[in-house]
Write a structure and sequence with these properties.
The complex is a heterodimer. Chain A is of the alpha+beta class. Chain A is about 30% helix and about 25% strand. Chain A has 20 helices and 27 strands. In chain A, the strands form seven sheets. In chain A, strands 3-5-1-12-9-10-11 form a seven-stranded mixed beta sheet, with helices on both faces. In chain A, strands 7-15-14-13-8 form a five-stranded mixed beta sheet. Chain A has a four-stranded mixed beta sheet with strand order 18-25-26-27, with helices on both faces. In chain A, a hairpin with a 4-residue loop joins strand 9 (about 200-205) and strand 10 (about 210-215). Chain B has helices at about 25-30, 85-95, 105-115, 125-130, 140-155; strands at about 5-10, 10-20, 50-55, 55-60, 70-75. The chains are: A alpha+beta, B alpha+beta. Chains A and B meet through helix 1 and helix 18 of A and helix 1, helix 2, helix 3, helix 4 and helix 5 of B.
Chain lengths: ~775, ~190
């Protein structure tokens, strides 16, 4: 056999393995699963923000054609409550029933379900379920919810405050006593929809013969869903199979176990038919988690040169009516990351997490960390504003320096590696900072208002280790060389658009000298893949790929042993060169992986101490988080007549350590930047004073379209992390974290001639226009 | 109660009995198994369900199946297949114009409609032309690149006829009087 040239793939912009099925309509999302005698589940949801359920009349619905089940709380109470493994220790945890017991607490709260033999029939019957509600007082305002005497979302808790989390490190009082100036601001970080294009959904099938349940669900963490679901259903964990089929985006919103996943499972078992639930978009906006929703009171002790001596935060975080798995933990990440890339040694934070009559919040791209970065980056600009300093210089005064890594922040987190100053310098040069300022003043003369905004961000990323997460912080991988030499990868990651199949195949191709197209990456099926923790917190490259690299290394070591026996040399003398395992310096006699695999599976002539087969597995736990970082610049123009903001340019210098595939890395940044910029300019979930969701459809909620955004200019620095074997820090959330404050800072910069110091997001034309007229600042 | 629907779907004449209230997208997906066309919003905002109706992009969640009677429908499955991709499909692959892929079939179909009307669009024209389709993953950056790349490819050669099109559908036509795919905010 002639030696095929195997190109080195790590770091190359390889086209995605995932795409052929996706561009031809051949992918299978949950709603694409069709089965004989499929039944459809529809949820009856509360139209009230807070109400007592006086009665539910299901008789009409039950009599409708094709209806096989109409269930209320009484039918599900034996299942107990929704589990919350991510609860903050000591917190007051609201009881979250699968269907409302006697009280609904947000618009969209699940009250009853209907299962029928057709999609439309289930909807018809749901409309016929007659619920008699007695409206109760509603708490929508986050700060008012925390006040004594506020009406209660969960009466049995006696308060709306779920927990208060104080932190006090260094000597904050001394810092404020010694400060030249104190810079303060109140920042609202509005509630937003994650808005994955595919709404959530699930299909459940019960097999009476094996007493096993299969649940296909649009999730980011199938094994975690399996563990929790099995416990609720009273089934052994290995009698539940959870499959994440093609998942149409998630951004954190498909990380939690939701009542509908339990309900499809329960009803499928009860009626003995497959049951499908697919969210309508309106339902998705009502019931699937929301993101952000904080109010931050910021006080900084500052010296005249812009150095931050101390930081005080008071953070109100809105949990919504209940807690999903990670709801309560998200705002604690804001506290942990609020010193950011800066040398802030005196820091105090008081986090007040509250229940309100709104949809539960949970992880949305960045999850607690964009909020921290928004606080810091607005603060840096306000210090520059109040002290009449340059925003770049204020950041330079405070940034952690390259020779200070690993850097132990006062929050207790150790930052792995970085050159924050280097990323900033590169961005300043690329944007032509001085040139921009000249053009800005020229245009101002003409009555045109452009602005430049900066943020220097870090992200606490690659979620690990196990001490930091309720279900562990590792990831798993199996690399299986089949007898023909084809390679099957089983990963515990559960990608849903990131392109991990491609990146993982690149890593394995390099590690084993096997062609890219010979590698299949399997994920998301708990019956096929060993236990894994899934995809969130930018974990794929930092944790998932690292476990894969380890597993591949184990296979390579075994292949060297087999090759050594076949070539009658010591395994130590066998090297992998250009797709062949051979003796160093004698490449022509090398063996391909196929030849080695054939021998490994039919080990005739191999020494008895060599086990048959060719497979390796690794469970990899990193010692710490990673910290990607970068510097973002946004350029905006504000229309003087209408207040409309146009994002003209966006330039990022991002450092996510080692890059496996630059195409994928850039794609992650593009999407993240778009979401972050969109939060700055467009997106805001609004409830009225009755707790009614005012932005309950895409007609009322502004998700950006192609003509709302510019093309993005991406640049990089590369500072590998010492935390994992690949040096990869992760990049899934970086774009979202850096872009929001950069865009807001740009708008504030543009509005400087109008004496505007701060406006809250989103910077809609009306808000900006009013500020330009001197109103509502 | 049902009505008889006769339509050409991806080049094949099909006759179905449909409920008068059945949406076209549910007919395509649930009755015909053409699940490439996705549903993203139910209110005509997101464009995931975009298909071609007599060569023009429409949102199939906002049309009754019976309204397609006597018409010709092309879905993503009718555009190309693995091994014989349409230049737009190829371009989306090459330019990393998709991530989760959920908006992609509708986006590609809308882009085809755009390029039929305007074979050499500027970046601004592409962005405006696709404003009826939402993508939450890509920030549109690489979608714009993909459409530009496809326009170049298709400009250099006669566009291949979509697999499903029986005949006469390729030529640009006036949009007057037909439902537009672009909607949403103006």
């Amino acid at each position: 056999m002639t030696a095929a040239t195997i190109p080195h793939l790590l770091g190359s912009p390889i086209k995605r393995k995932e795409d052929p099925r996706l561009i031809t309509g051949g992918a299978n999302y949950v709603d694409d699963i069709r089965m004989l005698d499929m039944h459809y589940l529809t949820v009856v949801r509360s139209p009230y923000g807070h109400a007592r359920i006086r009665s539910i009349d299901t008789s009409v619905a039950k009599a409708m054609p094709g209806v096989v089940a109409v269930w209320t709380y009484e039918d599900v109470k034996s299942m107990g409550l929704m589990p919350v493994p991510g609860a903050v220790p000591g917190m007051k945890l609201a009881e979250h029933a699968i269907l409302a017991r006697d009280t609904v607490r947000f618009v969209g709260d699940a009250v009853a379900i209907v299962v029928a033999s057709t999609r439309y029939g289930a909807r018809d019957a749901a409309l016929a379920v007659d619920v008699d509600y007695e409206p109760l007082p509603v708490v929508v305002d986050l700060e008012k919810a925390a006040e004594p005497g506020a009406s209660l979302v969960n009466e049995e808790l006696g308060t709306n405050v779920a927990y208060v989390n104080p932190l006090n490190v260094g000597d904050v009082d001394k810092a404020f006593a010694e400060a030249d100036r104190v810079v303060t601001v109140r920042l609202v970080n509005p509630r937003v929809f994650p808005m994955a294009m595919e709404p959530r959904g699930s299909v459940a099938v019960w097999e009476p013969g094996t007493q096993r349940l299969t649940l296909w669900t649009s999730t980011q963490a199938p094994h975690v869903v399996r563990t929790l679901l099995a416990a609720m259903l009273g089934l052994a964990e290995n009698h539940v199979r959870v499959v994440a089929p093609e998942v149409g985006g998630a951004f954190g919103s498909k990380l939690d176990l939701c009542p509908d996943e339990v309900l499809t499972s329960m009803t499928a078992r009860a009626i003995g038919k497959p049951v499908k639930f697919i969210e309508e978009r309106r339902e998705n906006l009502q019931q699937t988690i929301h993101g952000r929703d904080q109010i931050d009171y910021v006080e900084a002790a500052v010296s005249n040169d812009g150095t931050v001596l101390g930081l005080k935060l008071k953070i109100y975080a809105d949990l919504g009516a209940y807690c999903h798995i990670v709801t309560a933990a998200i705002p604690t990440l804001t506290v942990a990351m609020a010193t950011g890339p800066y040398k802030i040694r005196n820091y105090t934070a008081e986090l007040i997490a509250c229940y309100t009559n709104k949809t539960p919040t949970a992880a949305y791209r960045g999850a607690g960390r964009p909020e921290a970065t928004y606080v810091l980056e607005r603060l840096m600009d306000l210090i520059a504003h109040d002290l009449d300093l340059d925003p770049v210089e204020v950041r330079r005064k405070n940034l952690i320096q390259p020779d200070e890594f690993p850097y132990a922040a006062v929050t207790g987190i150790v930052f792995d590696s970085g050159n924050y100053q280097g990323a900033l310098d590169k961005a300043v040069e690329l944007i032509d900072y001085a040139g921009f300022r000249r053009r800005q003043s020229e245009l101002r003369e003409q009555g045109r208002y452009i602005g430049l905004g900066l943020s220097t961000y870090i992200e606490i990323s690659g979620f690990a280790p196990s001490s930091a997460l309720p279900w562990g912080g590792w990831e798993s991988a199996t690399v299986r060389v089949e007898p023909t030499g084809k390679v099957t990868v089983l990963t515990g990651s559960s990608p849903h658009g990131q392109g991990a199949e491609t990146a993982y195949a690149q890593i394995v191709s390099d590690a084993l000298g096997v062609p890219f197209d010979d590698i299949e990456v399997v994920h998301g099926d708990t019956d096929r893949v060993q236990y894994g923790l899934g995809t969130y917190g930018s974990r794929n490259m930092a944790v998932g790929a690292s476990s894969l690299a380890r597993a591949a290394e184990r296979v390579r070591d075994k292949a060297r042993v087999v090759a050594g026996a076949m070539l009658e040399v010591s395994p130590d003398d066998v090297v992998l060169e250009n797709g062949r395992f051979g003796v160093k310096g004698v490449p022509d006699q090398g063996l391909t992986l196929s030849e080695i695999a054939a021998k490994a599976y039919v080990p005739v002539g191999l020494p008895a101490e060599i086990e048959p087969g060719l497979e390796g597995q690794a469970f990899y736990e990193p010692s710490n988080f990673t910290t990607p970082f970068g510097a973002h610049f946004a350029v905006v123009e504000v229309d003087a007549d209408t207040g409309k903001v146009t994002l003209q340019r966006f330039l990022g210098v991002d450092d996510c350590g080692t890059v496996i595939n630059p195409l994928l890395k850039d794609g992650q940044l593009h999407g993240g930047i778009a979401q972050g910029a969109s939060q700055a300019l467009f997106e805001e979930v609004l409830y009225d004073e009755n707790g009614q969701l005012m932005t309950g459809s895409l007609m009322d909620y502004a998700v950006p379209k192609a003509d709302d955004l510019p093309s993005f200019e991406l640049h990089e620095t590369v500072t590998p992390t010492p935390i994992n074997p690949l040096g990869a820090k992760g990049v899934g959330e970086a774009g979202t974290i850096g872009s929001t404050p950069a865009v807001v800072n740009a708008v504030m910069d543009a509005l400087k001639p109008f004496g505007v110091r701060h406006l809250d997001m989103p910077l809609k034309p009306e808000r900006v226009w009013r500020a330009m007229q001197g109103q509502g600042r | 109660m049902s009505e008889t629907l006769r339509a050409t779907i991806n080049g094949v004449e099909r006759t179905s009995e449909v409920e008068p209230r059945l949406l076209l997208v549910h007919h395509l997906r649930d009755d015909l198994g053409l699940t490439g066309t996705n549903i993203g919003c139910d209110t005509s905002q997101c464009g995931a369900c975009t298909v071609l109706l007599d060569g023009h992009a429409v949102k199939s969640c906002t049309m009754l199946a019976i309204q397609a009677d006597g018409r010709s429908i092309t879905t993503i499955e009718g555009l190309g297949e693995v091994g014989n991709l349409h230049p737009l499909q190829e371009a989306f692959w090459e330019c990393h114009g998709l991530q989760c892929g959920y908006c992609t079939p509708g986006m590609i179909v809308a882009a085809l409609s755009l390029l039929t009307r305007n074979p050499n669009p500027t970046e601004a024209e592409i962005r405006h032309g696709l404003e009826g389709n939402i993508c939450r993953c890509t920030g549109y950056h690489n979608i714009v690149r993909s459409v530009q790349s496809a326009a170049e490819k298709m400009g250099n050669a006669v566009p291949p006829r979509p697999l499903g099109e029986g005949g006469g559908e390729g030529a640009p036509r006036s949009l007057a009087g037909l439902p537009r795919s672009t909607g949403g905010r103006s």
